[in-house]
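Spend some time on this chain, tokens included, and walk me through the fold:

. . .
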Amino acid sequence: MNGLKAFRLVAWIAVAIVSMGLAAFVLLKSEYPSTPASTVSGTPAVGGPFSLVSQRGEVVSDQSLRGRPYLAFFGFTNCPDICPTTLFELSEMMAELGADADTFKVLLISVDPERDSQELLAQYMTAFDPRIVALRGTRAQTDAVLKAFAAAAIKVPMEGGNYTMEHTAGVYLMDADGRYVDLMRMEEPREERMRKLRELIS
């Protein structure tokens, strides 16, 4: 290999490494947004108008949720670990709260509407607390909701033509007026998660 070819090879490797690093940085920043972006007014730019369809065929929107706090979590049925683990833990937290869990809504918003049909979501959600609502929309509606919540979802190709989704994993806590309150991370101690939830509904 002559000097010019070696230089070109090294340059292309360097470009690839930098590109992968930037992609990972962007994904990690969106994965755990400690402080959501703010608007000029100082109000966190999280949440906003949306209208999606539940696993039961009901239309759920930001307006229909007004008057009750809600938790929003992005996921998909083919998720191997984070999504089912989060849903199981949320189900356990709701069971611990008992009747108080009826005072708020929990939403799973699918980031994979191409595969997550209403029927598939209905079957998937039978494994979790029946009060948890799964939502889906068109690709455009899904992208709009992700943008509204300052969240991210990236399709990652796999062998055999399949794919998975890398997505923001935190649980958004929204108050009865649809305003962002906090982000619940499932790796936090259970006591801390329960504290945040009790504060939201108090």
About this structure: The CA atoms of residues 70 and 105 lie 4 Å apart. The domain at 51-201 is CATH 3.40.30.10 (Glutaredoxin).
